[in-house]
Amino acid sequence: MLKVGIVGCGKIADSHASQIGKIPGCEIVGVCDREPLMAQQLYDRYPVKQHFGDLTELLEKSHPDVVHITTPPQSHFEIAKICLEWGCHVYVEKPFTLYEDEARRLIDLANQKNLKITAGHDHQFSHAAIRMRSLVQGGYLGGAPVHMESYYCYEMGASDYAGALLGDKNHWVRRLPGKLLHNIISHGIARIAEFTCGTSPQVIAHGFTSPFLKSVGESEIIDELRVIVCDEASVTSYFTFSSQMRPSLHQFRLYGPKNGLILDLNQETVIKLRGARYKSYVEKFVPPVTMAAQYVGNLKTNLRTFLANDFHMKFGMKHLIESFYRSIVEDGPVPISYREILLTARIMDAIFAQLNSQVSPIRHQKENPVQAAVSVVER
Q1: What pairs with residue 377 in β-bridges?
Q2: Domains, the chain, ranges and CATH?
Q3: Is 37 helix (H, G, I), strand (E, B) or coil?
Q4: pLDDT class for 310, splitting at 50, 70, 90?
Q5: 234: phi > 0 → left, psi -120 to 50 → alpha, else beta; which?
Q6: What does DSSP say about strands 376-378 and 202-208: parallel, antiparallel, or unpaired?
Q7: Which residues, listed in sequence order, are joined to residue 89 by a DSSP beta bridge?
């Protein structure tokens, strides 16, 4: 029986406790929060053996094999470090750490202790994402990726979390190096990192506060971001984060030398893009029919999954947790490579370094319009 502990008993901890409860061969032996009432409420609502207000007490009394860290990102590094030093495997919610250096130090420590660690990039393991990965591994692209486009949107008006952030000038998200972006974009960046070959990409980032946020008096939060990434093999990527564009996309497009793929997380679909064009007027008629057939095929797949009681919002989290536990029990490879975790952190470091040093394009446009628009960081 794998013994599991959870540190941080806020909203996301509910999802972890719920998905852990669906996995055979494990049990939640303890939960912990520096606010004891938060630990108590999680203990009361889920099958948890003990609750604590102190991390050391959790480790000493519950002896977990693996610890899930679901606290604000500022505390991820220190808590993960302590858990690894105590001999626990660690699952860290996104973003993994605040900086690449911290991520590297945790991975190095895990390797030294012969332990495993992973990041909560659970969107990588939805049903559709798994199908897309299988197509890529099966050679559908016709070779290594040539170009990628990752879209990750966030609707500011549809979230209590966003309301709390905008209404509280001391909110913990505002203290992150990348503020709102830092707590959200790792899902979209991780998709790019998975299929990027190199380890030191060139990054160009431009971010700004949307007119909507400005209209409600917000000037600190950047909610519009456009990024270009180019690795050593000249594989390029575009990343778009937006709170305003509609439709609100959660989409990933992957183009190879022969064919392409479109993953849509909102619709849970994977669409194959045929690289070769048909001759003459056939191009105007056959592709719409084949595209329609693919959407019908995705519908049937989703219906079968739904009827099998395996179609739920947090399937990706359950799959990631289950895969991570399997890697621990069987001493196999972790579900997310350490290269991918580090590359995600590196790209995010580059983005936030640029945004934090970016000269206001409105204030200084006449002085230096090129410098105000973009900057390049090569790591």
Answers
A1: 203
A2: 2-119 (3.40.50.720), 126-317 (3.30.360.10)
A3: helix
A4: confident
A5: left
A6: antiparallel
A7: 66
Task: Give the angle 340-343-348 at the CA atoms, nearest 5°.
Answer: 125
pLDDT of 85-128, one tens digit each?
A: 999 999 999 999 999 999 999 999 999 999 999 999 999 999 99
CA proximity to 188, closest of 104, 94, 260 = 94
Tell me the C-alpha distance between 66 and 263, whole Å. 32
Burial class of residue 41 in the structure, from the number of CB atoms within 10 Å of its CB (0-12 exposed, 13-18 middle, 19+ buried): middle
Q: Do 117 and 80 meet the contact criterion of CB atoms below 8 Å apart?
A: yes
Amino acid 164: pLDDT: 82
Specify the amino acid at residue 98.
L
Residue with tokens 């016709």, as numbered in its chain? 142
What DSSP letter does each residue of 187-230 carry, written as one string?
A: HHHHHHHHH---SS-EEEEEEE--HHHHHTT--S---EEEEEEE
For residues 183 and 173, the answer to whether their CB atoms sit within 8 Å is yes
